[in-house]
Amino acid sequence: MKAVLEFPFLVLIAFVIAIVIKTFLVQAFYIPSGSMRPALEVKDRVLVEKVSYRLHDPRREDVVVFAKEVFGVPAADVPWPDDVRNFLRELAGLPTGQEEDYIKRVVAVSGDTIRYVGQPRRLIINGTEVPQPYIKGGKDNSSSTITSADCARLDMDKADGGCRVPAGRVFVMGDNRPNSEDSRILGPIEEDKIIGRAFVVIWPWAHFGFM
Question: CA 104, CA 198: separation in Å to the nearest integer?
Answer without folding.
Answer: 10
